[in-house]
Specification:
There is one protein chain. The protein is built from 13 helices and 12 strands. It is an alpha/beta fold. Strand 9, helix 10 and strand 10 form a beta-alpha-beta unit. Helix 2 packs parallel to helix 11, helix 3 packs across helix 4 and helix 5 crosses helix 6. 49% of the residues are buried.
Length: 327
């Protein structure tokens, strides 16, 4: 399989159609977008990204071309995909799907401006020198998702307050997984519960993990923030329902497809911010002058229909805290 066939396989039509557009309009700036997620479940995020670009006057297919590359949850594919975008070359390289995509882009180029989405601390991760003055060729948004694992475990405990045995599902291939586990274990100790750790990095391992969770009668599960999991959210929610496991997730996307509860940032707004920064850079701004943005609002979403199916009574206190209740 040659390189073009490889990229076509990963990105599908979305990855290849802009080549023709670029041939017709050679002067049109080309922007790269690299994601650890999948195109079929990221349409709302792409729309938000394009909205941010449009706020700066840039419309895909009109005065810019966006080249998409998708790793489909395979983090080991990201370096090759990033290198392919750099070779085009692109004027700006945007990334989605957390640290794996951002780090692959950073390793691929020291000159092309990068606008990233990172779940954790981009300074500790080596993406920028500081949040206010990023330095180098990268800036973006830090959405703090992995840092919210402790908060999510606490909310799960409020859902099942009598439980003493909770679970956490991690992807060992996700770079922040070690920090996620540390945060969860510290939170578990603080609230006096035991936590069983389950790991999965493939579809088969996800199925096996839920089978084990059911066999062990885990009273509640915290699914750690991870782009691979997010790209399979329908599968994850369906497994939690099949095995009747109360589960908390990172994004409202899960609750919208039947997940019990989610707590995290407004992800589409993060992608809008990425598009906005990319648009500013096309207008002449430098990444080092654009501070890394951080979320100021976190959404708690509860799916009452799912709670009823699980036989759970959601406390009035928790319902009052919810930003959205799905009936």
């Amino acid at each position: 399989m040659n390189r073009r066939e490889f990229i076509a396989l990963l990105g599908g039509a979305a990855a290849t159609w802009p080549i023709a557009a670029r041939a017709q309009q050679p002067a049109m700036p080309v922007i790269g977008f690299l994601s650890a997620r999948s195109p079929d479940e990221s349409t709302h995020l792409v729309a938000a990204l394009q909205r941010g670009l449009a706020e700066n006057g840039y419309i895909d297919g009109k005065n810019i071309t966006i080249e998409y590359r998708w790793a489909l949850g395979r983090y080991d594919w990201l370096p090759a995909l990033a290198a392919d975008l750099v070779r085009l070359p692109v004027a700006v390289l945007m990334t989605g799907g957390g640290e794996p995509s951002a780090l692959a882009a950073k390793a691929a180029t020291t000159t092309i401006p990068i606008v990233f989405s990172a779940g954790g601390d981009p300074v500790k991760g080596g993406l920028v020198a500081s949040l206010s003055r990023p330095g180098g060729n990268a800036t973006g948004v830090s959405n703090l998702s992995p840092a919210l694992e402790a908060k999510r475990l606490g909310l799960l405990h409020e859902l099942v307050p009598k439980a003493v045995n909770l679970g956490v599902l991690l992807n060992p291939n996700f770079p922040p997984a070690v920090l996620q586990l540390t945060d969860v274990l510290e939170a578990a100790s603080a609230i006096g519960v035991q936590v069983q750790v389950f790991r999965a990095s493939t579809d088969r391992e996800i199925e096996a993990a839920f089978n084990t969770i059911a066999q062990m009668r885990i009273a509640g599960l915290s699914q750690a923030a991870d782009p691979f999991f997010a790209s399979r959210r329908v599968q994850m929610v369906a497994l939690a329902a099949r095995h009747a496991v109360p589960t908390i997730y990172q994004f409202r996307e899960y609750a919208e497809v039947g997940g019990l509860i989610s707590y995290g940032i407004d992800l589409p707004n993060t992608y809008r911010q990425i598009g906005d920064y990319a648009g500013r850079i096309l207008k002449g701004a430098k990444p080092t002058d654009l501070p890394v943005q951080r979320p100021t609002k976190f959404d708690l979403v509860i799916n009452v229909k799912t709670a009823k199916a699980l036989g759970l009574d959601i406390s009035d206190k928790l319902l009052a805290l919810a930003d959205e209740v799905i009936e």
